[in-house]
Write a structure and sequence with these properties.
This protein has ten helices and eight strands. By secondary structure, the chain is an alpha/beta fold. It has one domain: TIM Barrel. It binds phosphoenolpyruvate.
Length: 257
């Protein structure tokens, strides 16, 4: 069945988050994705790969001339300075990135990143000319306590930079309990949350929130992508484990053919 856009006017986005995986031997996986995209396998979707920083420049060069874009998985809020081990948004841009993920739940949890920190990072991304993919999502306990919507609402209002250009921000709704677990919310729950996020964006931003792409992330696989990606207000996916092999990743992106 041909793909029908669920948010008319928005180009879907499928982004792969490689996390702390991959070595030089895997640069070919990116090249395979670039060839598949050139062959029309992602249809109208925009494709982004976020490898570890060590592979970013090599992958971006190996795909030079391809419409596939690359991204970092995190950035520091400052453009440069005495921040051992950190990478700035400007450095990511210099290495060939067009996107950066900020506020991923693994960073919120393991690196104690607050909404305030996430907002500073997202602001840095925009300053550097990158698109910021801002992650939000509730834990299992928060959902079970009936708090999923307020938790995500709070993360949204705390993490989104003020006065930003909407086309350079993407929201990724990633329920923490669905990441890497094989569990996914029901299509109804995804629809409710994405509608809520859309309404929040519409209410709080100077331009209509309909222009912001809202991705779903959390155990997206080829087998469930068709159902999840056709939920209203789902404008693409942030994919972890299944983005590590070109075949699986392209099978997900193929929903948009
Ligand atoms: C992620 O880490 O952003 C993610 C969605 O992971 P996975 O697809 O493996 O659940």
């Amino acid at each position: 069945m041909p793909y029908r856009p669920r948010s008319p006017g928005l180009r879907p986005l499928v982004a792969g988050n490689w996390k702390m995986n991959g070595s030089r031997n895997d640069i070919d996986e990116a090249a395979k994705i670039c060839s598949a995209v050139a062959g029309g396998e992602a249809g109208k979707a925009e494709i982004v790969i976020c490898p570890p920083a060590t592979l970013l420049m090599a992958m971006a060069s190996s795909c030079n001339g391809s419409p596939v874009r690359f991204g970092g998985q995190d950035c520091h809020a400052e453009p440069s300075g005495a921040f051992t081990g950190d990478i700035s948004a400007e450095m990511l841009k210099d290495a060939g990135a067009s996107f950066v993920i900020v506020g991923h739940s693994e960073r919120r949890r393991a690196h104690h990143e607050t909404d305030k920190i996430v907002r500073a990072k997202a602001t840095a991304a925009l300053r550097a000319g990158l698109v910021a993919i801002i992650c939000v999502g509730e834990t299992r306990a928060e959902r079970e306590a009936g708090g999923a919507l307020p938790i995500v609402g709070g993360q949204l209002s705390g993490s989104i930079p003020e006065n930003f250009s909407l086309e350079r921000v993407v929201i990724a709704y990633e329920p923490v309990w669905a990441i890497g677990t094989g569990l996914t919310p029901t299509a109804q729950d995804v629809a409710e949350m994405h509608r809520f996020i859309r309404d929040r964006l519409n209410r709080h931003l100077p331009e209509p929130g309909g222009n912001v792409r809202i991705l779903y992330g959390g155990s997206v696989k080829p087998a469930n992508a068709g159902e999840l990606m056709t939920v209203k207000n789902v404008d693409g996916a942030l994919v972890g484990g299944a983005s590590l092999t070109s075949a699986e990743f392209m099978a997900i992106a193929g929903v948009y053919r």
